[in-house]
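Task: sequence design from structure.
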């Protein structure tokens, strides 16, 4: 779910927004600010390891946690997460909860890390902790946490739990083409292509473009498995005209033209 990775990155970047830091305020020097900006640039370039090392250098000798150190810890947590060092990210978010205050946002990103580690029970508990502080579900990160939880359950083979979460998000008005595509793939794996087509129709009725291309490809695959080769060929050709050809599409079209 590439779009989810982008959402997570945007979410964590939002958590890093702090008040303007002035040179000399609270012992913050021009050099420290330059290192901070350099580390942020490293993150934008994908050098998460280098960014983590730079952020560590800024906080390792701090005798107290100021606004500057809080800011650095938030950026470090984001870099650790994007580095896929989820244990380190969890440790940093735990630290933030202790030295800042418990925020639902910290809990929600921790859910994502725990789900990526396959620690589903811990992820559920952390989600509950976030929701207790965020009863109206208005804090950033709830949606992403639920998606990560569903993805963790899918990876764990617990598709029933994943489906329940996806349906819950739909009921909350958070349904989108990506969620419908996930539900479609689950039912396709179960061999229920008719139900999969129902999910596709619901997804394609929406106006977001998160997973429209995937839905259209999977829709054609469903018709092929249902033996409706003419319809499948029509859909694959329409897909090719809209998105271009690749090895998968060319193979499907060549196969269906012989049916």
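Answer:
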């Amino acid at each position: 779910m590439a779009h989810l990775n982008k959402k997570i990155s945007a979410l964590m970047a939002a958590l890093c927004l702090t008040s303007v830091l002035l040179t000399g305020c609270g012992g913050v020097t021009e050099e420290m600010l330059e290192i901070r900006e350099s580390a942020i640039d490293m993150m934008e370039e994908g050098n998460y390891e280098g960014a983590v090392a730079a952020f560590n250098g800024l906080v390792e000798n701090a005798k107290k946690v100021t606004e500057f150190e809080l800011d650095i810890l938030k950026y470090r947590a984001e870099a650790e997460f994007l580095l896929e060092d989820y244990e380190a990210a969890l440790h940093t978010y735990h630290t933030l909860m202790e030295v800042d205050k418990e925020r639902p946002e910290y809990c929600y990103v921790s859910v994502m890390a725990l789900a990526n580690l396959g620690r589903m029970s811990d992820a559920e508990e952390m989600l509950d902790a976030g929701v207790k502080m965020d009863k109206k579900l208005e804090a950033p990160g709830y949606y992403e946490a639920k998606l990560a939880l569903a993805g963790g359950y899918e990876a764990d083979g617990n598709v029933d739990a994943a489906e329940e979460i996806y349906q819950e998000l739909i009921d909350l008005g958070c349904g989108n083409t990506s969620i419908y595509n996930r539900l479609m793939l689950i039912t396709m794996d179960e061999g229920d292509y008719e139900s999969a087509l129902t999910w596709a129709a619901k997804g394609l009725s929406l106006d977001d473009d998160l997973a429209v291309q995937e839905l259209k490809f999977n829709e054609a695959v469903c018709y092929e498995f249902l033996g409706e080769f003419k319809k499948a060929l029509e859909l694959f050709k329409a897909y090719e005209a809209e998105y271009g050809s690749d090895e998968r599409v060319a193979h499907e079209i060549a196969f269906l033209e012989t049916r």
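Residues 18-24 have pLDDT under 50 and may be disordered.
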